[in-house]
Design a protein that fits this description.
The chain is mainly beta and 128 residues long. 0% of the residues lie in helices and 48% in strands. Strand 7 and strand 8 form a beta hairpin.
């Protein structure tokens, strides 16, 4: 499956952005989806994940209470609503897909290695 992320940009601290990720396949609902981010010189880390039907989700500790992940299976699209942005949120944000039938526990969706497909990334820059 091909993933296309969009919506990044430059925003001031305390501002908001909404990222989108569109999947190429109509089997989008066969995948759990995640957003990861990577800042320069740092490892890729989880921002959020959502299960195939939107019934379950999880967040990285640094974004809890500020970011909200959602999906629209009819539109093959994943979203990440980011509020109260901080300079430390500056990173390239990647969307990723994990084939649902391979995942046995939701906890594994917090690890990048468990995802099968990745988008190209979209830059988010938060100025102070």
């Amino acid at each position: 499956v091909q993933l296309q992320a969009s919506g990044g940009g430059l925003v001031q601290a305390a501002g908001s952005l909404r990222l989108s990720c569109t999947a190429s396949e109509r089997t989008f609902s066969s995948y759990h989806m995640g957003w990861f981010r990577q800042a320069p010189g740092k490892e890729r880390e989880l921002a959020a994940f959502v299960t195939w039907n939107g019934g379950g989700s999880g967040y990285g500790d640094s974004v809890k209470g500020r970011f909200t992940i959602s999906r629209d299976n009819a539109k093959n699209t994943l979203y990440l609503q980011m509020n109260s942005l901080k300079p430390e949120d500056t990173a390239v944000y990647y969307c990723a897909a994990a084939l649902a039938r391979r995942i046995t526990t939701m906890r594994t969706l917090g690890e990048a290695k468990n995802y099968d497909y990745w988008g190209q990334g979209t830059q988010v820059t938060v100025s102070s």
